[in-house]
Specification:
This protein is of the alpha/beta class and 227 residues long. It has 9 helices and 8 strands. Strands 7-6-5-4-3-2-1-8 form an 8-stranded parallel beta sheet. The longest helix has 19 residues. It is globular. It starts with a helix and ends with a helix. The structure holds pyridoxal-5'-phosphate. Pyridoxal-5'-phosphate binds next to strand 8 and helix 9. The site of pyridoxal-5'-phosphate has 14 residues, from strand 8 and helix 9.
Length: 227
């Protein structure tokens, strides 16, 4: 079942790329495995997926020893400052940097480890009360401040679009994130790249790809519903 789901997602990703003239290699699928057991993750890994997304620090720490070493772990959930040290040396990319204070903590831990940590800035493009992230008008200040941290590399932007029945309703938010990324790129700030756009989940990843996503985060579409 999981294998079929994964193949279906990959097929739809490819079709979305073809519709908008993008190369399928430009888009990477992150399998969002939160709450799902190692056995299911192994099925996905066996099909050649090396990118896994989790939203809880403890879950990454718990699962990591039981999964192959070459997996790329993506932290996609709200990250508390006191937990940064638990994952700073374990994750490939932190998608959910939503404040300068959090970045400061990441800088501190990364410096201790003598490494650079790759991050995305989370943007609350739809300005939802319930969501974390920089508001669009706060983004430039955030990028400029965080770009000064020598052990952090800003790679791009991430958003969690609203929950909607019709994915077309989120197109405007994906367009907006893409536009913000172009705007930030044009400011040519040292130590800042805007090559990554993490947007699109099970319900709307095809629209996100059409609007320029380079990373999509799919959980339910691969693993089935979460309880
Ligand atoms: C859970 C989660 C996803 C995946 O959601 P699905 O709708 O199951 O695909 C993607 N991104 C984030 C940040 C999440 O927390």
């Amino acid at each position: 079942m999981i294998k079929e789901n994964l193949l279906e997602v990959r097929k739809r990703m490819e079709e979305a790329c073809l519709r908008c003239g993008r190369k399928p290699e430009e888009v990477t699928l992150i399998a969002v495995s939160k709450t799902k057991p190692i056995s299911m993750m192994e099925e996905v890994y066996a099909e050649g997926c090396l990118d896994f997304g989790e939203n809880k620090v403890q879950e990454i720490v718990r699962k990591l020893p039981d999964m192959p070493q070459n997996i790329r772990w993506h932290m996609i959930g709200h990250l508390q400052r006191n937990k940064v040290k638990m994952i700073a040396d374990k994750v490939t990319l932190i998608h959910s940097v939503d404040s300068i204070r959090l970045a400061e903590q990441i800088e501190e831990e990364a410096a201790k480890l003598g490494r650079t940590v790759d991050i995305l800035l989370e943007v609350n493009v739809a300005k939802e009360e319930s969501k974390y992230g920089f508001l669009p008008e706060e983004l430039e200040t955030g990028v400029r401040e965080i770009s000064r941290f020598p052990h952090i590399a800003i790679k791009g932007l991430m958003t969690i679009a609203p929950f909607v029945e019709n994915p077309e309703n989120n197109r405007k938010y994906f367009k907006k994130l893409r536009q913000l990324s172009v705007d930030m790129q044009q400011k040519t700030i040292d130590n800042v790249s805007m090559s990554v756009l993490s947007m699109g989940m099970t319900g709307d990843y095809e629209v996100a790809i059409e609007e320029g996503a380079t990373l999509i985060r799919v959980g339910t579409g691969i693993f089935g519903a979460r309880l």
